[in-house]
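User: Here's a structure from my thesis project, written as structure tokens. My advisor, Dr. K., wants to see whether a designed sequence matches the one we expressed. Can you design one independently, without my sequence as a hint?
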């Protein structure tokens, strides 16, 4: 199963061709893709036009939507921030650690286009899709 980060969905809906959006376009219908509720929020909040919002929402809701937080994952995410900090890694966005922790917890691979995940790949063994 693959979780697609908002960095890829935003490029996809903006019509930007990247290795990740090309991979996503090819994978639609062939790979088991899930959407996290926090990623759904990040993606949908960026649409200016109602029609674009509805189109994106309708497409994203064709995939299973998983709730990404709860007490256990919140504590696990905080522990991962502390683990990374002890290794000298500064995390810029808490949401990225939450996404990585969610993937680790559920054994999902992550498709992303965000360099902030690289230390989590290295130090936490986050599995990612290589586009």
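Assistant: Designed independently from the structure alone:
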């Amino acid at each position: 199963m693959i979780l697609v980060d908002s960095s890829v969905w935003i490029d996809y809906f903006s019509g930007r061709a990247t290795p990740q959006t090309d991979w996503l376009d090819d994978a639609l219908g062939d790979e088991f893709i899930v959407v996290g509720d926090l990623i759904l929020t990040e993606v949908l909040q960026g649409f200016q036009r109602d029609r674009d919002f509805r189109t994106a929402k309708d497409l994203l809701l064709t995939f299973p939507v998983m709730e990404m937080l709860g007490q256990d994952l919140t504590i696990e995410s905080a522990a991962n921030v502390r683990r990374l900090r002890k290794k000298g890694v500064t995390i810029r966005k808490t949401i990225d650690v939450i996404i990585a922790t969610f993937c680790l917890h559920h054994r999902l691979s992550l498709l992303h286009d965000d360099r902030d995940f690289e230390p989590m790949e290295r130090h936490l063994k986050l599995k990612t899709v290589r586009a």
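When you compare it with your expressed construct, this may help: The helical segments are 6-14, 19-27, 37-44, 50-60, 71-86, 94-106, 118-124.
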